[in-house]
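User: Assemble these into one structure.

Assistant: Restating your components, then the assembled model:
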Amino acid sequence: MEFEHNDPHNEQEEGQSPYERGIIVFFALTVFTFIEYVIGTTEGKILVFSSNLVPLGVIALLKAGLIVSYFMHISRLWSSEEDLH
Amino acid sequence: MATAIERHHAAVEHHHDEHHHHVIEFTPAQRLSMNRLGLWLFLISETFLFAGILVARIVLLRDEGGSFTRPELDQQLGLVITFILLLSSLAVYMGETAISRGEIGRFKAGIGAAIVMGLIFTVGVGYEWSIAHFAPSDGVEGGMFFFMTGMHALHVLTGIIFLMIVYWNGRLGNYTKQSHWGVEASALYWHFVDVVWVFFYVALYLIGHVPEVH
Amino acid sequence: MLGILRLDVWKGLIGGAIGTALGVFITMIIRSLQGLDNTWDTTATSPWNVIVIPACVMGTLGFLIGVGSMTDWLKWMVGRKGSDGHYHPKPGVPQWHRYFGMDTNHKVVGIQYGVLGIVVLLIGGLFALIFRTELAEPGLQYLSANDYNSLIGLHGQLMFIAVLLGIGAMANYLVPIMIGAQDMAFPRINGFAFWINVPAAVMLLSSIFLGGFDTGWTAYPPLSVRAHLGMQMALIAVFILGFSSILGGLNLIVTIFLMRAPGMSLFRMPIFVWGVLATSLLQLTATQFIGLSFLMVTLQRAVDIPFFDPARGGDVTLYQHLFWFYSHPTVYIWILPGLGIISEILPVFARKPLFGYPFIAMSSMAIAIMGYLVWAHHMWASAMDPFLRVPFMMTTLTIAVPTGIKFFSWLATLWEGKIRFATPMYFTLGAIVLFLLGGLTGPPSALVVTGLHLHDSHFVVAHFHITVFGGFMFTYFAAIYYWFPLLTGRMYSETLGKIHFGVMFIGFIIFALSLFRVGLLGMRRRIADYTIDFGGIFGIEWQMLATIGAFMAGLGVLVMLGNLVFSAMYGKKAVHNPWRSRSLEWQIVAPPPELNFSALPQIVGHPYDYGLPGSVYAILSPDDQVVAEPVKPNQITPSKPALPAAAVTGD
């Protein structure tokens, strides 16, 4: 049955359990958030940008991309394989 | 021709006798992909709403020189509640992963933790509301702050209700390793609410500068 | 007789009343505890601007729960089993009762949409006739200025709902059958989405008793912030209505993408389904923006957030951008299914393949996507940066390209066809003529130089109405007549149908041309009174002529209603597939059974290969195939016996 989920053993053969993957993604999100905080609370010019809108917006997009692809499993929309967990 | 008329009558009778028509059932996999597409379309629709709010924020919150402004908020509090919401997303992810492996205990722990953290986040926003030294009607900075956090908090509360329903149904044993669309749906919604905060946090707390005089 | 008391809709109304009362009392108690004032009045600063928000939300919820549209979900939430989602006749309850309650069958929901749509259309049309009568002559004869303003605003918003309901009717009834599916993807959401419309329409109409509103349907601030309490009701009503649009669009997209019969690739779908797909994408996404813009006005009225108050940093132009980002695409939401119906009906009556099918399909998508990029052409006269005018003018004019593709395809489809004339074909051709006139009056409004002159004049009003009549109303009437035999199994009166067309077409042309004329002479829109002598023709003033034309169009609608009601009850039995269409919905028995197909049909060819010998579109299960009765000599349209094989072929 294509609908049945794979065994946990199969997933572990890939070398990374989904739990570990979640923690890594969360760690990356935390780091990005701290970078945002530093950029946002620093007075004056950030790098070459006259406003901090651009760097902050880019990091926010990165964070959103991480959540959408790893936490929300957007790839399930076009693949019926359940081994993407 | 007689046979043709007979067949027609047979077809008409057939129409009255519903039992001849069978429901064409979907396989669980088909049903799941329909549900997923439907929920994602709903989230895309919601994205337009929040994108519109962000556009309004970009347009409205500027000073005379055209550079961006932001409301005066408690930065540490903002960072802490953002961290808590991210952590709740991780908890929901853990819970969903657990149910897809049939680990009911971990599933309940993950969802339960997310509910608690969602409530803490809501209380945090409420606290920020209570300590704000501006009213919604004072100016667009304050107004936009109450509007954006209010719209987001409304979605957080909805998400908490969904998670509570999922927790309750999980306790009743209504979810299995194979069939747990309810968990997946509320998890997707919760992560979406988190994504919205990723942008709202930046837009409210970090972009631009606090104007000198109100 | 007591049976009528058992309709579920009464339970909904009771639920709505309870919800509204609860919302009012809870809010009033909380406000009293905070020491706030609850005095009743209908001014813009009334405390009731706050109280009506929870009242409307809880009233809507009460209605939706009462009518039974959320029963299954509520059961699921507490872990109980809901219904199986199918209709089970209850002993002693007549079949028609299901049309007045929550039902998940897409055909029932389609009819519900259609009937409510006609009711709202009649109310909106009545309002139009009232203020059109006022405008027939200079001076104020029948209405106060405030009533006039409320009526034009309500006419706009009611027609807005009526058109969306009409689209819901056609899309819900036809799309699942056309693509060979049993039902919509989410039948419960489908029924739920319909029932949202009822409390929304009631709320909208209630605004007239709460002081009305004088902004027109667009609700521009700062006027909408200062309008009576009725404004708040209208804003909330449209906001709540948005849920219906979004959920309906979502449902249709999933249905179209994932539930097509085997063999039905995207480019083998009936062309109407493409129109619905494009419309649904717009509904799904753009609707959020009218919700957002109205919500911001609602909040400014209720808690004084100064979004649109320049003195406190607000920006009124922002409202216009947000508003038109939905409200321009909404015009395409209205016309895309209509244009799909033109493309659907023409090949059947011309007995020729639809010319350039993939181009028509793609032009619908192109109109939908480009529809997002033209909104600011409504704002030539606003405080928008003048720099933006030229790019928006260019995108607007570019819309003519995909629309032009459709026109040339229609002409090419008609070319050398064996055209038959029946009421649906008359309305289709009428729609093409009107839409062409609407299209030709578009560039003068879109070009900045002439647009600034024509802005807010009756010329623009006429342009808009002729476009929507061509793009939606006439195609909707064509669709009603065309699919009437499918819905009822009976034939409408062809004579009355032609009278409807004649009266409506001539009346509407008179109306539109008169409006173009007075608009060019400087008549502003939304003006209750005027003093200018616009002149006339044949001794009749243009304004009077426009009123006469409007009444003729109204008369046409009444003729249609009489025709439909009478024919549904006493009409002649329709022959099977009277128009000899190849589309799936005509191959099954009319009216379609509870479940459309007993087995999924196989699609093996293209839908519009009319006149191509030996071409096959679909193979149905023998259980579904209807064999036509022998031809009687004086039937309205000729029909020939179906081929022995259970296949839909060209002829």
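Chain B has six helices and no strands.
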